Amino acid sequence: xxxxxxxxxxxxxxxxxxxxxxxxxxxxxxxxxxxxxxxxxxxxxxxxxxxxxxxxxxxxxxxxxxxxxxxxxxxxxxxxxxxxxxxxxxxxxxxxxxxxxxxxxxxxxxxxxxxxxxxxxxxxxxxxxxxxxxxxxxxxxxxxxxxxxxxxxxxxxxxxxxxxxxxxxxxxxxxxxxxxxxxxxxxxxxxxxxxxxxxxxxxxxxxxxxxxxxxxxxxxxxxxxxxxxxxxxxxxxxxxxxxxxxxxxxxxxxxxxxxxxxxxxxxxxxxxxxxxxxxxxxxxxxxxxxxxxxxxxxxxxxxxxxxxxxxxxxxxxxxxxxxxxxxxxxxxxxxxxxxxxxxxxxxxxxxxxxxxxxxxxxxxxxxxxxxxxxxxxxxxxxxxxxxxxxxxxxxxxxxxxxxxxxxxxxxxxxxxxxxxxxxxxxxxxxxxxxxxxxxxxxxxxxx
Length: 447
Description:
By secondary structure, the chain is of the alpha/beta class. It has 13 helices and 16 strands. The chain folds into two domains: 2-207, Carbamate kinase (3-Layer(aba) Sandwich); 292-432, VC0802-like, CATH 3.30.2130.10. It has helices at residues 11-22, 37-50, 53-74, 78-100, 105-129, 153-164, 193-204, 238-246, 257-262, 316-326, 351-358, 386-392, 420-432, and strands at 2-3, 27-31, 135-136, 171-175, 178-180, 186-188, 210-214, 235-236, 267-271, 280-282, 291-306, 334-336, 340-345, 363-377, 401-404, 410-416.
């Protein structure tokens, strides 16, 4: 069971989460930091890095009081409240001491881990104080990345066995997002990484199901913040969920699907505020036909390389890809013709070096301020006309790239950032029309 920051945003929500945990006698619970805490710690790190320790201390003091106030509202027993506020004071005392040592990236990562650690310790203490027994674990003891920066399910399994036993029973509570790198330094799995921790741990523990509790009722067919008449999707395949997560759907971390899919463990997305709502189940074997959902990803840059040397030549693309690999920059979308190749990236920190090296292969043109729009569903193969329908809905827009056929689950276009809202609304109208209230599961089975 993974609970996000909004699910743990204040004392009342923590009580609600405690009620959900109490219903499971054997569970592994992963907590994010309380809502807003990580953002504040990022601001602290920024002031620390710039040498403004006074402002950093002011923000830290505000966070300390926020946690203490939450403890006073959460605990009814004076002794339990004193212990909880002692936990808060101890941690923030160490944060203040760390400021004196000076800024470094390792110190920043240590600081960013405090939100998850303090939040989880308070919740574990609360659960035990109300007779819901739970064992607190430190995620830094079992979530460790390799030299490639990625955790291993097998390594996590071995580390967890040493902590919980070969056949764990009872309740355990820990943190998401935070980890150690292969050199033993505190680091993290980046924003949204608690989902990733949850699916890795679920795979390592061979769980029956992985529940991700958020503040919305599952995945919707489009972005409800900007599109009216969206509706929930009750079931997704792992492939569909992976495409949606990678190409912009905010409810899932892009990396979180593969540990569950590789081990055949369903993921259930649930709403903490409406726990009886059905949410969205993600699993293998889904056979629904039709277009499922639309997602958009902004902050995209197009890089076009044109070279006559590409014509009837082999090895050209491998040299292009080697440059992106060298600068650790993933490619999202790729299209090719006889003498040119176009790719998109969402990480532009090494763009200048990449452009310089690509110039040795041909003429390079870079366009920033773009976005990817991805339509996901059962699109290819026997479904004649489905791709045409999708593209027809975009006929009034400035489409820069089209990727079609790489997966039977999606068709992807690259468009100017400023056209995204209108495109999402157009696709919603053309593809879904006047939708029914939900896309229901096509397979009726128990999880």
